[in-house]
Amino acid sequence: MIAIVDYGVGNLFSLASSVKSLGLEVIITRDAAELRAADHILLPGVGAFADAMDKLTATGLVPVLKEETRHTPLLGICLGMQLLFDKSYEFGEHEGLGLIPGQVCPLAEDLTDPALKVPHIGWNALDITRPDDPLFRYVQNGEYVYYVHSFYAKDCAASTLATSEYSIPVTGAVRQGLVYGTQFHPEKSGDTGLRLLKAFAEL
Q: Could you list the active site residues?
């Protein structure tokens, strides 16, 4: 059973459809007992960091998620990945879940090519820095995935699994123990994204 955390942020049904297409059982929930019973947890997210963190906190699930990640694989997607870090500097300074060391910063401030647009929207190749990680069991270096974001994770080299080039190496995937994150959207990344979700479900 894969549980998708419902805290009022994110395209839950698109993600659920992708998981179901793999023949996997999935539930969209904000119930603590259902999350504890799940074999894997997905934390989606779109929008602003502070608003998402406030909504997640309001559900009362933050302690549950921190407890479950000790023994249950969790995958944060897009903003859901950013919430995993210590803090974000999106319109101020905001505390994150602190499950992965690092911080989330404005992409526009670090780009070396002024012609590139922010938000970063579109397909980019993966540079998999840790190809032995089981998350990439079915994904090869150079495959393309779909991004939509204006902020990105920094100071997290020790946890970085993959990057994508956007004039700078943008953090694409991370891992700390059983806690995983992808800045790109697997559910919008075609067959490559489905294979990544399949590998996550097999962890």
A: 78, 185, 187
Q: How many CB atoms lie within 10 A of CB 171?
A: 26
pLDDT at 10 over 90: no
CATH number, domain of 159, equals 3.40.50.880
Q: Which range marks the domain in which residue 157 is found?
A: 2-201
CB 172 within 8 A of CB 65: no
Burial tier of 70 (Cβ tally within 10 Å: 0-12, 13-18, 19+): exposed
Peptide bond into 119 cis (omega under 30): yes
Alpha-carbon Rg for the chain, nearest whole angstrom, is: 15
φ/ψ of residue 154, rounded to 5: -130, 165
Contacts for 128 with CB less than 8 Å, ≥ 6 apart: 136, 139, 140, 141, 161, 162
Count of domains observed in the chain: 1
pTM above 0.85, yes or no: yes
Checking if the pLDDT of 202 tops 80, the result is yes
**Nearest CA-CA partner of 137 in 52, 80, 55, 201:** 201
